[in-house]
Known about the structure:
Blueprint: H1 2-16, H2 19-33, H3 35-43, E1 46-51, E2 56-57, E3 62-70, E4 76-82, E5 87-93, E6 98-105, E7 111-115, E8 119-122, E9 131-134, E10 139-144, H4 152-158, E11 164-174, H5 186-190, E12 195-203, E13 208-211, H6 219-236, E14 240-243, E15 248-250, H7 256-264
Parallel strand pairs: 2-10, 13-14
Antiparallel strand pairs: 1-3, 3-6, 4-5, 4-8, 7-10, 8-9, 11-12, 14-15
Helix pairs in contact: 1-2, 6-7
Amino acid sequence: MLVVLLFGLFLEAYMHDFNLVYISLFFVFSLAFSAGPLGVLNLGQLKATFLPSSRLFAKQEGHISLNIENQAKTSVWAIELYGEETSVNLGEIKAKSKRLVHLDYSPKKRGTFHYDGCYLQSKYPLATARLTLAIEERYEGIVYPEPKGKSLASFLSEEQSYFGEEKEFDGLQSYDGTQKLSSIHWPSLAKGELAVKRFSKEIQNPNLVFDFLKAGGNDEARLSQLCLWVLTCEKQNLAFSIQLPKQRLDSRKEAIDDILKKLAKY
Length: 266
């Protein structure tokens, strides 16, 4: 709109030489170029710092967290945060306040990573100038293996030693090929539905042992499978150990995040 207005005023001044047109033209010019210093004042007092993010898993959507602080005594307007894959419109940030922001991030592979190149942008007040403020800080994090594979219940059902005894009948479930034939619910089979009986288990030995070499066909599949079992054990508060080729990981001696980090860096 400003470009069209400037072009129209310039033609009007060129053809008719009116003083009022010249005054309007200079006024619009000054209004357009005022976006520079106003934009600097609007953006210059912002400070962004990375915060520890939640767990990130390969090929799954997560987020990177930042704290945006307005150190000025006045509100800032029309602020946008740009990351590697996405952007977030922050709008107004009040004076002497902070804003927690999450940037979506989907890592492609496991291991350590660096997240940088972020910047704040503002086109305040008239979008005639685009000002950016680079975030110099770089976030360093770790991506855990993709939790993928057979469930812990399926793994236990395949083991000769089931880590527990059947306690109470707990309904029916679909037959997936891993359950014992003795568990088949024959009345359901007569109706044309292949189902097996499910029993709640009284855990006798909660210390599960996972063998790395038996967890999958290749290293990536094994790490994904182990990651899934680790998360399941954490959720169910079960102790476990993982036998790697050159070391043994034990949940009773190490934190879950430490175990996941070793799997991520394997």
